């Protein structure tokens, strides 16, 4: 069986997971699932990077020991991945004994090869990057990534003779054009290698920083965090003796973002070379998610948390958006508006409608039974050929990391099928008993398209794909594979479809609430005069009942010295009977408006209480109708 091995960076435990981490890990998951569909045996590794200055500092700031702190944050990452349906085989921590042993083993090998020496070095040390920056890298004396001035540190340390492997690395990159990809990052590494490579400082004296793995040949020093972290990719497959190492290391593909290109593109291959281990197969480098035109950071307060989005919009929609929106290798802007746009257009409209229309017609016209296709007409053949061609193209797109292209191409098929429905007009065919065979064929073609789509989107949206397969009556016992898309027609006539509920509801309501919230956040300053125009009154609820056909609205009759009827969107937070007798606050002079056919003469005041709404009331008895000021 063919094999393939995917890794993500191991994330620092100095910060909680955000969408940047989620993106790389979900991309790795999509690849991993896709190659499973393609019949490969896969291995997928992720984990946390727990040593070094940065983590030690974060632990200090949190008032915890480094290990207790690392345990806690590493736990957040570990618990996050299953929630995002990430199917990693192993979660590695650099504080594991197994990893410490492998790091010491590699250090000893490199040392024995004569590639480690002791020396003094003075340089510009950036705490954010955890490395010495060269003069050339500084911009106005500052680290270009962190915008901070590095410390000048002079101390005795151990160095790895990286310079010795410069020529070899250039040759390797040149003779393996897909070693680092996309090409822009390969060029970036080659450009860097045009200047003489400096040796790499690979130790930290324990007197300055002791949170790390001791050097096997000098106990006064710990290993530099990058030399330690990169080796996780070997520990993860049980280097040196494990069978997994033998099987999976030759087919290893790393996934990273551009921020850590240098350690992966330069340090890592030269370290491997010195230790006598063949280099990884591919380094796949993607761009950065930008939020509100800038890098995500705690200080800017623009960190986007994956679970928040998942709870708000659903996991599959979130996964789809990440993979559809970012062309692999380029930076992309993240915005909730764009996410909502994709949900409504691509998921609810295009895919959701295709599925619900097709299944509804099969239920209505064929009592839910899969009909048989007979004589194919040119339009039927076009649909079939497009699907077969797409299945082949998608494989190629995955091999080139063109995830967004694979999704675009899949949506072309979805849209072709939607147009096919419009032009075949099955509802007209259904009226003519003489066209029964034609209707059978049209419905069958559509169901087969759904089968193709369900397989092709599985790696991106596993839950949706599995739901579609259940709707098509495909049993779990017959797992779908890419090979099943080599042929058209494997859905068996006579089987039953089950429509169920719609796959992706539109997010109109949520958007409106968002807009309202945004408006509130940026409310303008008003004068007392402006405020006094608002007639706020004490109101006692006399009666409350649901508004027909709405799950959000309640109709209230209130007493404000006179009787008023108003309609409020609080049905999800309050039952009608809970409201009767309550004293609340209403805006009494709001222009009347009709909601679901009921006239509303006022608006009650309520606040967002996390889970639903909380009504504004009084902490003492207040007289109905009196003014609130
Ligand atoms: N611990 C090192 C990696 C060691 S690997 C041997 C590290 N950790 S990190 O927590 O800073 O993670 C960096 C990685 O997180 C990036 O390479 C990328 O995979 C992901 N991302 C972090 N922020 C990101 C964005 N804003 N956009 C996209 N991905 C980003 O570096």
In short:
The protein has 629 residues and is of the alpha/beta class. The protein has 21 helices and 24 strands.
Structure commentary:
- It is a single chain.
- The protein is α/β, with parallel strands linked by helices.
- It is 42% helix and 19% strand.
- The chain has 21 helices and 24 strands.
- It is flat and about 90 Å long.
- The termini are far apart.
- It binds 5'-O-[(L-methionyl)-sulphamoyl]adenosine.
- Residues 9-12, 20-21, 23-24, 49, 229-230, 232, 256-257, 259-260, 288-289, 296 line the site of 5'-O-[(L-methionyl)-sulphamoyl]adenosine.
- 5'-O-[(L-methionyl)-sulphamoyl]adenosine (MSP) binds at residues 9-12, 20-21, 23-24, 49, 229-230, 232, 256-257, 259-260, 288-289, 296.
Secondary structure elements and their pairing?
Elements: E1 3-12, H1 19-37, E2 41-49, H2 53-62, H3 66-83, E3 90-93, H4 97-112, E4 116-126, E5 131-133, E6 151-160, H5 166-175, E7 180-181, H6 183-192, E8 200-201, E9 203-205, E10 214-215, E11 218-223, H7 225-230, H8 232-235, H9 243-248, E12 252-257, H10 261-274, E13 282-286, E14 289-291, H11 306-313, H12 315-325, E15 332-334, H13 336-366, H14 378-399, H15 403-424, H16 426-429, H17 436-456, H18 462-471, H19 508-521, H20 528-532, E16 536-546, E17 554-559, E18 563-568, H21 576-579, E19 583-587, E20 593-595, E21 598-600, E22 603-604, E23 606-608, E24 613-615
Parallel strand pairs: 1-2, 1-12, 2-3, 7-13, 12-13, 14-15
Antiparallel strand pairs: 4-5, 4-6, 6-8, 9-11, 10-11, 16-17, 16-19, 17-18, 19-22, 20-21, 23-24
Helix pairs in contact: 2-3, 11-12, 13-15, 13-17, 14-15, 14-17, 15-17, 17-18
This protein binds 5'-O-[(L-methionyl)-sulphamoyl]adenosine (MSP).
